[in-house]
Amino acid sequence: MSESFVHYYIKNQGQNYDEQQLFCTIRDLIGGGTETQSTTLGWAILLLANHPKIQERLHAEIDSVIGRHRSPTLDDRAK
């Protein structure tokens, strides 16, 4: 059986763990990952908008791997 972060947190803190602290810790982990992704995507969009030649090359590469008639899948990741 796979153990979760919550399982290890409670094991480490003991049965009298602070539920509010656990909630805040999980919120920070999820929120931190979300903020990083949104910032990275924002910069990528800004850079592509300011560099149309690179945008064209990226579009051509996506078209060569995926085409225009389907959505990408995990199988495309290695390509």
Task: Summarize the SSE layout with pairings.
Blueprint: H1 5-13, H2 19-50, H3 52-65
Outline the structure in words.
The protein is 70% helix and 0% strand. It is an all-alpha fold and 79 residues long. The chain has one domain (5-76). The protein is elongated.
Describe this protein with a few key phrases.
3 helices; single chain; mainly alpha; 79 residues
Oligomeric form: single chain
Helix content: 55-70%
- Biggest beta sheet summary: none
Radius of gyration: 21 Å
Structural class: mainly alpha
Strand content: under 5%
Overall number of strands: 0
Q: Quickly count the domains.
A: 1
Average pLDDT, all residues? 89
Low-confidence stretches: none
Q: In one word, what is the shape? A: elongated
**Helix-strand sequence:** HHH
Count up the helices.
Answer: 3
Determine the N-to-C terminus distance. 33 Å
Write a brief caption for the model.
The protein is mostly helical. It has helices at 5-13, 19-50, 52-65. The chain is built from three helices and no strands.
